[in-house]
Amino acid sequence: MKAKLFSGFPLTHDAQMSLLSCKDIRFQYPGTKTPLFDGLTITIDRPGFHALFGPSGIGKTTLAKIISGDIAGFSKQVKASGKGPCLYTYNQERLPGWSSVGRHVEQSTPEGRESLRDHLIHGFGLSNLLGMRFSQLSMGQCNRVNLLRYLLQDFRLLIMDESLANVDEPTREIIIYQIKSTFPKAGFLYISHNVVEVARFCDQIIVLRGRHKNPRTRLIVGQNHQKSQPLDKGALEASMLEIMNAA
Amino acid sequence: MKAKLFSGFPLTHDAQMSLLSCKDIRFQYPGTKTPLFDGLTITIDRPGFHALFGPSGIGKTTLAKIISGDIAGFSKQVKASGKGPCLYTYNQERLPGWSSVGRHVEQSTPEGRESLRDHLIHGFGLSNLLGMRFSQLSMGQCNRVNLLRYLLQDFRLLIMDESLANVDEPTREIIIYQIKSTFPKAGFLYISHNVVEVARFCDQIIVLRGRHKNPRTRLIVGQNHQKSQPLDKGALEASMLEIMNAA
Amino acid sequence: MLHRRIYQFFIVYFLGIGLLFGIKLVLGLSDYVIPGPSNLWNTATAEWYRYLGDVLNTFTVAVVGQVLSIIIALTVGVVGRKATWFGSFIKVAAYNVQAYPIVAIAPILFILLGDGYLTRLFIAAMICYFPLLLSVIGIMGEPVADIEHFYRITGRLRWQLEVKIRAFENLYKLTTVISGSATLAMAGTIVAEFIAANAGIGYSIRIALYQSDLSKILVALFMIGITLSFYQGVLEMLGTSLKKSWAGK
Amino acid sequence: MLHRRIYQFFIVYFLGIGLLFGIKLVLGLSDYVIPGPSNLWNTATAEWYRYLGDVLNTFTVAVVGQVLSIIIALTVGVVGRKATWFGSFIKVAAYNVQAYPIVAIAPILFILLGDGYLTRLFIAAMICYFPLLLSVIGIMGEPVADIEHFYRITGRLRWQLEVKIRAFENLYKLTTVISGSATLAMAGTIVAEFIAANAGIGYSIRIALYQSDLSKILVALFMIGITLSFYQGVLEMLGTSLKKSWAGK
Amino acid sequence: PGGKVFAEEQIVYRLKWLINASTAGDVFASSQGFFSREKLNVEVKAGGPERDAIRELELGYAQFGVASADQVIRALSKGARVKVLAQLFQVNPLQWIYRADAFTLTRPMDLAGKTIGITYGGNDETIMRALLASAGMDETQVVLAGVRYDYTPFFQNKVPIWPVYRNTQGILLSDKLKAGEERVSFFNPAEHGVRFVANSVVTSKKMMDQAPETVRRFTKALLAGWEAAMMPANETNVIRALTVHDRDTSKPVMRSQLAATRLMIQSNPDIPIGTIDTEAWRQTEQIMARQGLIPGPINVVDHLNPDSGL
Ligand SMILES: Nc1ncnc2c1ncn2[C@@H]1O[C@H](COP(=O)(O)OP(=O)(O)OP(=O)(O)O)[C@@H](O)[C@H]1O
Ligand SMILES: Nc1ncnc2c1ncn2[C@@H]1O[C@H](COP(=O)(O)OP(=O)(O)OP(=O)(O)O)[C@@H](O)[C@H]1O
Ligand SMILES: [Mg+2]
Ligand SMILES: [Mg+2]
Question: What is the pTM of this model?
Fold first, then answer.
C-alpha cells in the first residue's frame, strides 16, 4: 500500500547512468601539511542505498561535502547522474526556533508531497512531536526531524552524514526500510559507523581507508536487505568481515 | 604495565556502598502536558561500567542531567556514593577555539595526572591531533577529545551521553576497554543506542521503558567484558535479547 | 523588574547628588557654582511639573525616533551585512555620516529639512541608529551554518529568511541593544532640542544653562532619569515577552 | 580593503557635495548659504593643512578615548552581565548616566576635571562607550552552554574564562562593534571639543560655525572622513589578523 | 461672504536668539496686534545658535529676520543679497562682566595682565581685538581665554573678565553674585571708541524689490511695537507677553532686564528707535576687514535702508 501511495512521486534517476563518479580528487585543508585526498577516485554505478564507511577522521565528511558542493571547486571532478541537486545533510543541523517543528516541516514541503510528508512523519515516529520546538527535542528526535525534511526535497543524491547516529536501533531500522521502499530508485549515500547496519542495508559500500593504504578506497557489495526479504545471516557476516578487513 | 602506571591514581569509590540510587523522581518539562518521570526509582549497587539504555526520546538525557545536577532540585532524591562530583558529558560539547586541543587538554589536567593524560591521548588515537583547533576536528575526533578531558577529572560517577556516538566501532572498542582497565573502581553510566556494545561491555544496564510500561525501568546484567577475557557469544546474545525485550 | 529599575535609579541619582554636595562642602563652593540642598528642593517643587511635561514631550519624539532608528539600522545592516562591494559601500557611507558631529551638519540639515519636528526627529534617529547598526551588522554578517544549511542547499534561503534566522539566534543580544538604545534615542532627542527646538526638556536645559541654573538642570536630569528608567523597564518586559512568544521559552 | 574604504569614502563625500551643489544651483543660492565650487576649493587649499593638524590632534584623543571606552564597556559589561541585583544596578547606573546629554553635565564635568585634555577625553569616552556596552552586555549575558559546561561542572569557570569564551564565540560581532566604535570615538571627541576645548577639529568647526562659514565646515568634514576611513580600515585589518591569530582561521 | 476682504499676508520673522528681554519689541508687536493692524500675519520664531536668519531668508523659510552686523557683512561678502531695515540696538549689549571688588576697568590699559574671556570665532573676539588694537595694545599684554556657554570658570574666578549680554545674562549673573555678597561691574567697549553694531532687522533684496509695500508695513509695525514695548508704562504688559515664551525668568529679573534693554535700544531719546547708525556700520566693516574676516570691502552702507519703515 505504501509503495503505491507514492508511485506518482517523480523518480528522477536514470538507472542506465552511473549514480556517482569522482575522479582524481585532491584536497587539502588550509593550514594542514598533507593533503587529505590525493587522486581519489570513486564510482558507484547505480542508484540505491549506498554507504560511505571508514574510521573516524578519515575524511568521510569532507568527501561528502566535496560531492555535494558544500566544499566548492570540484564540479569538474564530480559527476552524478539524474536531475536535481546533490544534497548533504548531517546530524548537527538545527531547525529555526520561532515556530514548531511541524510548522517548519510543513513550510519546507514542496507542493504535492504532503501525503509523502505525512507518511514519513508517521513512519519516523514523529507524529507526537509536531507541536514542539526543535530545541525541546531529544537528540534522536532532532536527527529524525532533520532527515525527514531532506527526504521531501528533490535530489539526485542524498548524502546522510551520521544522520541517524543518535537514534535507537529499532527506530533506525524502521526508517531505513522505509526510505528504501519509498524511494526505490533514488540515490543515497549513508555515512555510519555501524558495520552491521551498513553491511545489511546498503547496496554498495565505499570504504575509505587510511592515508597510506593503496588503493585509498574499496568498493564492497552489501546485502541491500529489504523488509520483505529473508535475511541471510551468513552472507551478512561475510559482508561485515569484508568491510572490516577493508577499513 | 598500563595498569601499574596508574595504581597511584586515587580511586575514590567505596565498593561497599551502592553507586547510585534515585528515589521517586518526578519531572515534567515546563510547557508540556504530562510528566516525563513520575515516581521513577533506580538503584545501581556497585561501581563499574554501567549503561542507561532506551529508545530515542524516552528521557535518558533528562535523567542523566537530573542525576548529575545539571537539572537542579533533586539533591534529596538522588544519592551517589563516594567522593567527588557526578559529572555529565555529552557528545555535542565543544572546546574553546583560541588554542589547540592539546593545550586545552593540558590546562584542564589536574596536577599529577599528566601521565594518565598522555596514556589516554595515545589510547584514544589523538596523538596527531593535539596541534589542531577543536573546530578542525571530525565529529568522532571531537567526541574523543571531549570524553578524554572528563576522564582526567575527579568524579564519583561519570555519565557519558552518547559520548562515543560518532566514533568508529574499532576505536570505540579500544576506548571502552581502556576506560575499564584504567578506572576499574570508578563509576560510569554509559548512554548508547548500540545494543551489542551495551550488552558486551556493561556490567548493569538500566533500561528506560515507555511511559505506560510498568515498571518504568528494568535492570539487566550485561557481560561486563574485559579485554583479556574470552567472550561468551551465547551469553552476549542472551543479554542483547533481554535488553531488547525490556525496551 | 520595573520597580527594581526605578528604585535603583533613585539610588544612582541620589548618590550623584550626594557626590555634588560633598564637593560643594569640601571645596567650600558658593551656591552659584553648585546649588545647596534647599535651593535644589525649592527649584524641584517649583519646576517638577513643568519639566515633567517637557520630558514627556521629548519622550514622545524619542520613541518615534527610536522606532525610526531601528528601521534604519535594520535596513542598512541588512544591506550592509554582505561582504560585497555594495555592502561595504553602504557601510562606509553609514559610518562616515556618523562621524560628522551633528552640530556640524546641523546647518545643512536646516537647509534640507527646515526646522521643527522633522529635524528634531531626524537628529534623534541619527544619534540612536548607529550603535544599533553596529550590532545589526555584527549579527547579520555571521552565518548560522547549522540552521541555514538546509535552506541554502535547497535554494530556499531568501534574504528575509536569512535575516530572520540570524535575528532569532541572537535574540538576546538584539533585545539588549534595542532596549538599551532607548537611552540613546532620549539623549539624541535632547541634543536635537538643544540645538534646534523650542520645546522639550532639551530646550529647557539649554535655557537653564544659559541662565547658569544648575539646580534646574539637576531637576531636569531627575525627570529624564525617572522617565527613562520606566521606559527601559517596559521595553525589557516587552523584550522578555517577545522572547517568550517567539522562542516559546 | 584599506584602499577600498578610502575610495568609497571619496564617492560618499563627493556625492554629498554634489547634492549640495545641486541644491545651490536649482535654488540659486548665494555662497553664504551653500559655498560654490571655487569658494570651496579656495578654502580647501588655504585650510587643509591646518585642519589636518587639527584632525590629527582630535584623532589622538579619539584613539585614547576609544581605548578607554573599550575598557569601561568591558568592565561595566562584565560586571553588569549577571542577572543579579548588583549587575542590574550597574546597568541602571550606566544607562542613566548615558541618558544625560553631555551638554547638560558639562558644567559638572568642568568643576570636577577642569577644561582641557581630560574633559575632552572623558566626554569622548562617554559617548563612545555606551554602544560598546550594549553589545558587551548582550554578548556576555548569554551562556555558550556547549563550551562552558565542562568548566562549570568541574568548578573551573572563573569569570575571566567565562568572559574569554563568550568573547571568542562572538569575535566577529565584537570586532565589528569595536572597529565601528572608532567612528563614535571620533564624533565624541569632536563634540567634546565643541563644548569644552580650545583645540582640535571640533573647536575649529565651532569657530567656522560662528563665522557661518560652511565651506570651512565641508573641508573639515572631508578631513575627518578621510582620517576616519583610514583608521577604520586599519582597525578592520587588525581585527582580521586578530581573528586569524586567535581563532587560527 | 462676510469677514475680511483681504487675507492677511503670511510672514515668518526669525529672531536671532531665544525669546527674552532682548526681543521684547518683537514679541510685543506680535501680541499687541501691531502686525495685524498692518494686515500682516507674522509668526515670530525664536532663534538659536544653529539658526541663521539670513540663510532662511534666502531659502524662503522666513521673510524677515534679526541678524548681527557681522553676520550681515559676512553674508554680503559672500554674495548674499540682504538688506538692513532697522538697527535695533544702538549700543551693543555685548560687554564684559567682572567683580567690582577685585579691580576696576576704566580704560583698555587696565586690561593688561588680566585673563579675558572671549568666544573664539564670535564677535566678542572681534570686538576685543579691535579694542586692544585701538588702544595700541599688543595681544601679548593680556591673556585671552576661550569661553563657552558654561560660566563655571568665571564663577571660580579662573577667568575674571567674562563676555556677556549686558541686558540679559548680565542681570542674571550680577543677581547671582549679589546673592553671594559680591558686586559686579561691566566693561563696555563702546565707551572706548569701538562701536560694533549688534542686532538689526534684515530682509532679502528680492523681498525689497518685489514687495516693497509689505516691507514698509512690516518695518513700521515692528518699530511701533518696539516703541510701545520700551515705554515704561507698558512694562507689565511686555512682561506678560514675554512670559508666554520665557517661562524661566522671574518677573523681577525680567524687569531689570527690560530696564537695561531700554538703555540700549534708545540710548538717546532724540534718536528714534530703529535708526541705522551708518557710521557704526562703516566702523564695523572696517574692523572686520582689518582682521581679515572678509576678503575685501563691500560697502555695507549701500545695503542699509534707513527709510524703509517710514
Ligand atoms: N577545517 C579543517 N581544517 C583542518 N583540518 C580539518 C578541517 N576539517 C577537518 N579536518 C581534518 O580532516 C580529516 C577528515 O575530517 P572529516 O570530518 O572529513 O572526517 P570524517 O571521516 O567525517 O570523521 P568522523 O567519522 O569522525 O566524522 C580529519 O583528520 C580532520 O581533523
Ligand atoms: N526543553 C524541553 N522542553 C520540553 N520537552 C523536552 C525538553 N527537552 C526534552 N524534552 C522532551 O523530553 C523527552 C525526553 O528527552 P531526552 O532528551 O531526555 O530523551 P533521550 O532519551 O535522551 O533521547 P535521545 O536518545 O533521542 O537523545 C523527549 O520526548 C523530548 O521531546
Ligand atoms: Mg564526519
Ligand atoms: Mg539524549
Answer: 0.88
